[in-house]
Design goal:
Distance between the termini: 25 Å
C-alpha cells in the first residue's frame, strides 16, 4: 500500500467533491509522481487526458488505413516498379512519333475515350497516354492511362484511375473510398490527429525533473505503455506537421481561398485539331531546347497545345496555338503555399531524410492506435478489479457488523 505524505492527503482533500474524473486523476497523478498538484492543474491535465483518450479511441480504426497508405505512398515510384515491372522497360532506342503512341492507345481505349496527354519517358518506363471520357449531362469525366511500349508502340495495358493497388491506396488515403464527402472526412480526421499529437506531447512531458526523465524506457511497468510514451514523443511534432498539411490539402478553400470544381470536371478536349502533336512539338522546341516530356491536347476553353520540354534545370512549358502554330514560353510558376504544403505532406522533391520521417510518421500512428487501445482496456480491467475488491470489503464490513 502507498503511504501518502501529509501534503498529499491535504491535496486529495482539496480535490474531493470535484468532477469524478478530476478526483480520480488527482489521486493517480499525485501518488504516481509524489508531486502534489493544484486542483486547477489537475483539471487541465485531466481534460487533455480525456481529449487525447477519446480522440484515439474514436479515430483508431480510421487512422490506421490512412497512416499506413500514406507511409507506403512515400515510395510510390519504387512500389509501382515492383508491382508492375511491365510498365518500366528500358528505353534503348529513339522514341517514335507521338501520333504513333496516340494511335496505339486508341486501340485499347474504351468507347468515347479521347487522348488528352502523352507523357514520354527519358531513360526508363513506358509511354503513358492519358485517356478521358466525358459523361453525358456534364457529369464528371473518367480517366485512364494507356501504357505503351516505347520501342514497338505495342499497348501494354490500360488502367482506370481507380484500378490497381496504388490507385486504390491513393483513394483510400485521400478520401477513405467515400465518394463526395470522403476528402472532408479525412480532413476532420487530420484535425483530430493534430489535437491528439499535441495533447499527447503535453501528457508525455514529465511532471517533475528534466526532459531526460521522460525519455526513460521504464516510465510504466508494461510494454504497451512504454511503447506508446516513447513512440508518441518522437513522432509527435512530425505527426503534427503531417496532420496540419493534410488538413490544408483537404480544405484548400478554407486556408487559401482556392475554389476548385468537383474532381473530374473542367474543360474537355476538342474532337478535331488543326495541328498534329509533331507540329506542336516542332513549334515549341525553338523556345525551349531539350527533349519532350509531355504533350497535352487543346481544350474547348484553351485551344492551344501545352508542350513540356525536359532540359537543363526544371522542365519548361510552351503554349502552341492550334490555329496558327504561334508559340509562347510559359513563365516559370512560382512555388505556391498549397504546393509547398503538398510537398511537405507527400515528400515530393524533398530530401531523403524528410521522406524517411514521413514514412515513420505513417507507421507509428498505427502502433500508437493499437497500444493506446490496449492501455485503455488494461485500465478498464484494473478499474473493474478495484471496484470488485471495494465491493468485497464493503460486504465483509457489513457482515462483521
Amino acid at each position: 500500500m502507498i503511504r501518502a505524505s501529509p501534503k498529499l492527503n491535504k491535496h486529495r482533500n482539496e480535490c474531493s467533491g470535484k468532477w469524478a474524473p478530476v478526483t480520480r486523476y488527482c489521486d493517480v497523478f499525485a501518488t504516481s509522481y509524489d508531486l502534489p498538484m493544484s486542483p486547477s492543474a489537475v483539471r487541465l491535465r485531466s481534460l487533455w487526458f480525456q481529449v487525447h483518450k477519446w480522440l484515439g479511441i474514436t479515430l483508431a480504426i480510421l487512422v490506421i488505413p490512412i497512416s499506413l497508405t500514406g507511409a507506403a505512398l512515400v515510395w510510390h515510384d519504387w512500389l509501382d516498379e515492383q508491382i508492375n515491372p511491365q510498365r518500366f522497360p528500358e528505353v534503348t532506342a529513339r522514341l517514335l512519333e507521338p501520333t504513333v503512341y496516340a494511335a496505339a492507345a486508341v486501340k485499347i481505349a474504351l468507347p468515347g475515350e479521347r487522348v488528352t496527354t502523352i507523357r514520354l519517358p527519358e531513360k526508363k518506363g513506358a509511354v503513358q497516354v492519358v485517356l478521358t471520357k466525358p459523361l453525358p449531362g456534364g457529369g464528371r469525366r473518367t480517366h485512364a492511362i494507356a501504357w505503351i511500349d516505347p520501342k514497338s508502340a505495342e499497348p501494354i495495358e490500360r488502367v482506370g484511375n481507380r484500378e490497381g493497388v496504388l490507385s486504390v491506396m491513393h483513394v483510400l488515403h485521400g478520401s477513405l473510398m467515400v465518394p463526395g464527402v470522403g476528402r472532408k472526412i479525412v480532413g476532420f480526421i487530420g484535425v483530430g490527429m493534430l489535437l491528439s499529437s499535441l495533447t499527447g506531447l503535453w501528457l508525455w512531458w514529465p511532471l517533475k525533473g528534466s526532459i531526460r526523465r521522460g525519455l526513460r524506457w521504464n516510465r510504466r511497468p508494461d510494454l504497451n505503455s512504454n511503447l506508446h510514451f516513447q513512440a508518441g514523443f518522437w513522432i509527435s511534432l512530425p505527426l503534427a506537421v503531417l496532420s496540419l498539411t493534410g488538413v490544408w490539402i483537404s480544405f484548400p478553400g478554407f486556408f487559401a481561398g482556392i475554389r476548385a470544381g468537383p474532381p473530374g470536371t473542367g474543360p474537355a478536349v476538342v474532337e478535331q485539331t488543326r495541328l498534329t502533336p509533331e507540329q506542336a512539338l516542332a513549334a515549341a522546341q525553338p523556345l525551349a531546347r531539350g527533349s519532350a516530356a509531355s504533350i497535352s491536347w487543346p481544350t474547348d476553353e484553351k485551344p492551344e497545345w501545352l508542350v513540356t520540354i525536359r532540359g537543363e534545370g526544371k522542365p519548361r512549358e510552351v503554349k502552341v496555338a492550334d490555329a496558327d502554330s504561334g508559340a509562347q514560353l510559359v513563365p516559370a510558376k512560382p512555388e505556391t503555399l498549397i504546393r509547398t504544403m503538398r510537398r511537405i505532406h507527400d515528400g515530393t522533391e524533398m530530401p531523403l531524410a524528410w521522406r524517411i520521417i514521413i514514412f515513420v510518421g505513417g507507421i507509428l500512428p498505427a502502433l500508437l492506435a493499437v497500444t493506446g487501445i490496449l492501455m485503455w482496456l488494461r485500465m478498464r480491467r484494473r478499474r473493474e478489479r478495484h471496484r470488485g475488491s471495494m465491493a468485497a470489503l464493503a460486504e465483509a464490513d457489513a457482515l462483521a457488523n
